[in-house]
Write a structure and sequence with these properties.
The protein is an all-alpha fold. The protein is built from 7 helices and no strands. The mean pLDDT is 84.
Length: 192
């Protein structure tokens, strides 16, 4: 996503829009991280209420509604915490440090592929769940539309990340096979 929006020069010192690149990257990662934690919350809440044998208002909602709602809240919390963390980490840094970090993000092919998968998943999730919730798929009953859309984007972002991990593990296995066979980019050294 980012390499299509911003140029990637040969040298980090020439990197334009460094603050924007790093901010977008960090907020995107925070969104996905918060979504992962938000996906785990309904499981913990269900286990906790089962042990206590006290149903709460949160457990009165359908399971999918709780999942979407907690994922939406988790993704927004993750984004906010990442914004605070990035501000604290980069406060007072020289512009060249922003440029260097941004340049390395744009140069990292695996990270760019992950961003593409995650962003694509977020778009598909938001649109898909938004449409399904309005066309009679009662799974999101009782949740405001904004939370359904954000939750759908969050679930889609996580699924995009999982898709990236699954497809990239195959390419890692291919590289490992080539290295073992002595054909890959990391050929074993010859001689003693």
């Amino acid at each position: 996503m980012l390499p299509r929006l911003f140029p990637h020069p040969s040298y980090a010192e020439d990197q334009p829009s460094a603050i924007s690149i790093l901010t977008i990257h960090c907020l995107h990662r925070g969104f996905t991280t918060g979504a992962i934690l938000g996906l785990l919350a309904p499981f913990a809440r269900t286990a906790f209420t089962t042990v206590l044998r006290r149903p709460t208002l949160a457990t009165a909602l359908p399971w999918t509604a709780r999942l979407i709602s907690s994922t939406a809240v988790g993704s927004l919390a993750g984004t906010a915490l990442t914004a605070v963390g990035m501000t604290g980490r980069m406060w007072g840094r020289e512009h060249i440090e922003w440029q260097d970090r941004s340049w390395r993000i744009l140069a990292n092919k695996g990270q760019n592929r992950e961003d593409d998968w995650s962003f694509g998943g977020a778009i598909l999730g938001a649109v898909g769940i938004g449409i399904m919730s309005r066309t009679g798929g009662g799974f999101a009953m009782g949740i405001p539309l904004w939370r359904v859309i954000v939750g759908g984007a969050a679930v889609g972002s996580v699924l995009g990340t999982v898709g990236h991990v699954i497809t990239s593990s195959r390419s890692v296995e291919d590289v490992e096979k080539k290295v073992v066979a002595g054909e890959g980019p990391l050929k074993p050294k010859e001689g003693p």
